[in-house]
Amino acid sequence: MAKKKKSIIKNIIFYLIVTWMLFFIIVTKFFPEQSINYTGFKFYTIVTGSMEPDIMINDVVVDVKVKQEDLKVGDAITFYTYLLANNGTYVKKEVTHYLAAIIVNGDDIIYKTHGAGIADDTYDNWVDENGDPTDLTYDDIIGRVKFVIPNIGIIMIVMQNVLRNPIMILLVVVNIGIILVVVKVTKKALSEGKKA
Predict the structure, then answer these.
(1) b/e map of 154-167 (b: 16 or more CB within 10 Å)?
(2) CB neighbours of residue 30 within 10 Å
(3) Across-strand partners of 61?
(4) Which partner from 62, 138, 142, 177 sits 20 to 30 angstroms from 128, CA to CA?
(5) SS3 83
(6) What is the CATH number of domain 35-153?
(7) How far, CA to CA in Å, does 98 sit from each of 52, 76, 114, 143?
(8) What predicted TM-score, i.e. pTM, was given to this entire model?
């Protein structure tokens, strides 16, 4: 009887993990800007050296949602801003930098940032979609870096490219379904073999 309970618990845990993984993939694919609100965290691969030597290129940062009142100078945060693309237009991108200053101006709160190794009183200059100077607000902040996973960024970039293709998403879902069926059939065959 205890063995059967243990088997049921393992199955429940397995199906919960698979369900959560599918949920995470779907939310990340179809609601990328809102996924941190649904999952509570989000992964980003560092692609520039602006945070070196603290966070290296190809490191992955895991961000968690942070309340405005919990932000403090020195936090590594990820936020949306516009960067100049190769074609001369400004595109919305995620950037991870240190929070260098919090400036309260009446009801407005402005956040100043800088990369690693930059003087504390030197701030980044960010622009809007038209290339005009703009300030960061809480609405621009995605989350605070909770921890860094070194050197797995290449894997994350490959996974992101795979998940951009709807056919690949379908293949991932089908493969997970096949794995579930194989596990179930194998377990059933093993349990019937033990009975015989």
Answers:
(1) eebeebeeebeeee
(2) 10
(3) 44, 148
(4) 62
(5) strand
(6) 2.10.109
(7) 12, 4, 5, 12
(8) 0.73
